[in-house]
Write a structure and sequence with these properties.
- GO terms for molecular function: DNA binding; sigma factor activity.
- Keywords: Sigma factor, Transcription, Transcription regulation.
- With 170 residues, the protein is mostly helical.
- The protein folds into two domains: 77 residues, Rna Polymerase Sigma Factor, Chain: A (Orthogonal Bundle); 66 residues, Orthogonal Bundle (Arc Repressor Mutant, subunit A), CATH 1.10.10.10.
- 68% of the residues lie in helices and 4% in strands.
- The protein has seven helices and two strands, in the order αααββαααα.
- It has a two-stranded antiparallel sheet with strand order 1-2.
- The longest helix is centred in the N-terminal third of the chain and has 23 residues.
Length: 170
Amino acid sequence: MTTLEFSYSLNKLSSSLKPFALKLTRDMDDANDLMQDTMVKAFTNKDKFTEGTNLKAWLYTIMKNTFITNYQRMVRRGTFVDTTDNLHYINSGDVLVENGAYGDFTMDDIHEAIEGLDEVYKTPFMMHYRGFKYHEIAEKLDIPIGTVKNRIHIARKILKDDLHVYRHKN
């Protein structure tokens, strides 16, 4: 397979990888980064691809392994080794909370944001939060399942916008 053919095949399959990247990362920006990393790795390692095998499966494997490697790297970055005699592994964060006040403020803001939702969005969102499945919510509220999914999506988007001050910045 020539470089041009390989590049064309990668480009053609990239759209089918996007949902998988989003499922792994749960964030659009991180999903785009994962997509880019996957494509770069695939292109730089094209000589390792055996022609006649499933390119899509090969790309999914690269993406999954890249995600796992990045996740493990992130976890290791937040862990240090205690060199005392007991040799404990301790997870350390950048933030040390002395009391629960910050958490209380956060929860108050979350509850306030949820209470601020229109009832049409809040009810299905809270039902889903409490563990109801989409079809159960649709039955109880007597609305189509697509409407349930849409309302929960809109509620999440509104809450994300309302609670933007808590967005994690790296």
